[in-house]
């Protein structure tokens, strides 16, 4: 008997243990996670848990089934509380019965770690000083063959993959960081001489006969596509199929936003590029690919991520936006700008073998991303493919679905009557739609436009937390203490060659930095985790700053 349960009521421990009794059981192991009165130096008065119920239960039961099969246990059960919890309350209980104690120990440890990493459950801490915050924590060690878990655990920190499900690139994150925007119009004549066109290519006329033959498209639909302007944010695993199919379909103008360079680890899923392109900017590579595929398409490139100060102005120049990054901050920023400018937006994300797709029509009364998830979880709560892995076809499928939704919007093709989040599981080939109730979410806080406006204003203010340096030795010379907030394996793979404190973002605290008596510059892979940690430190009175763009933005990371 396996059972995963979410409940707002206290856990009946006697009933849970009784349900796990089995005549063949020789070992029983249980884990209890309680609410404690402090976390990372702050006094806590209580917790609040929120969960995406349908997904949490489905994923929780999947985890129990995996543990049962993996360790040969007889029964497993898990209960996670939701709602408001007081100090000392039991937040999570896990029990396993097995023929022998070793299987029970290992299965219990497996379930704890997997619940922590995979379930869409969020935790808000309430502090004695009166404020509150959605909190992140460092990742647990997922070595399932280690010692058994303690019978009574401490403060439970569930991790989540929803709404993130991010499809990661070469670095663990890409920031929607504030920075100068670079915009270029790309034509055949502006390309590098090695990729310019011969006379026969300059006279090339695209052949759209196969799609024009469709009754719903026709010549009129093709003219709509030729007149359309679409902005694609991100030229990675999701963006590659979007860019390719929209260019192939004859969309007149494509805007492409990406500040990354191509890494060898990208190639297994970003198949628009090849090994000769490693080290070059993706936005340039994508523009050249479009020019080769369909020279009638005009490409406008943005080599820096959009930010709160310019994103709304950029969106007004396009009929439709397709968000294809692996960055939650970018996704929420795009949602807010879309709502404020009434620009339709197509969102997608991936996690391992699964994906999510949402169309934000940006029409009054219809839901947006924040109607489903009001605020993004902290960066450390979002799993990455660096940690979790991803098969190349997964972002390819989701990106192709984004391209289809974009073409449906541009051509006025039929849309589903409901407004839902579409979930795709590529292992078992299933798909389901989870309705989004427009009467809740943003509607409870003044509506999507009001919520988006406040969020964009807040993001613009928070953009002042960054400092731009091409080299870290210049930052040191300017008087900053460098604090590397990456994980140890990231630091080992790409160490900084300046004196720095090493302190993972999930463990950073004001008390450990105040003694420095000078401003601190936090550094991570791309600026996302460091920006989040900077905001927390600023609230505690530390003169903290975030390196804009992170290590990826340094002119030569090898020498910092």
Automatic annotation (TrEMBL):
Keywords: Nucleotidyltransferase, Transferase
Its EC number(s): 2.8.1.12
Recorded GO MF terms: nucleotidyltransferase activity
SUPFAM superfamilies given in the database record: Activating enzymes of the ubiquitin-like proteins (SSF69572), Molybdopterin synthase subunit MoaE (SSF54690), Rhodanese/Cell cycle control phosphatase (SSF52821)
Pathway: Cofactor biosynthesis; molybdopterin biosynthesis
Chain intervals for the UniProt region annotation (Disordered): 146-175
SMART domains: RHOD
Domain Rhodanese: 476-560
First-level EC class: transferase
PROSITE patterns membership: RHODANESE_3
Nucleotidyltransferase listed as a keyword: yes
Xref: InterPro entries: MoaE_sf, Mopterin_biosynth_MoaE, Rhodanese-like_dom, Rhodanese-like_dom_sf, ThiF/MoeB/HesA, ThiF_NAD_FAD-bd, Ubiquitin-activating_enz
CDD domains the record matches: MoaE (cd00756), RHOD (cd00158), ThiF_MoeB_HesA_family (cd00757)
Catalytic activity field: 2 [molybdopterin-synthase sulfur-carrier protein]-C-terminal-Gly-aminoethanethioate + cyclic pyranopterin phosphate + H2O = molybdopterin + 2 [molybdopterin-synthase sulfur-carrier protein]-C-terminal Gly-Gly + 2 H(+)
Family indicated by similarity: Belongs to the MoaE family.
PANTHER family listed in its UniProt record: ADENYLYLTRANSFERASE AND SULFURTRANSFERASE MOCS3 (PTHR10953:SF102), UBIQUITIN-ACTIVATING ENZYME E1 (PTHR10953)
Assembly notes: Heterotetramer of 2 MoaD subunits and 2 MoaE subunits. Also stable as homodimer. The enzyme changes between these two forms during catalysis.
Entry protein name: Molybdopterin synthase catalytic subunit
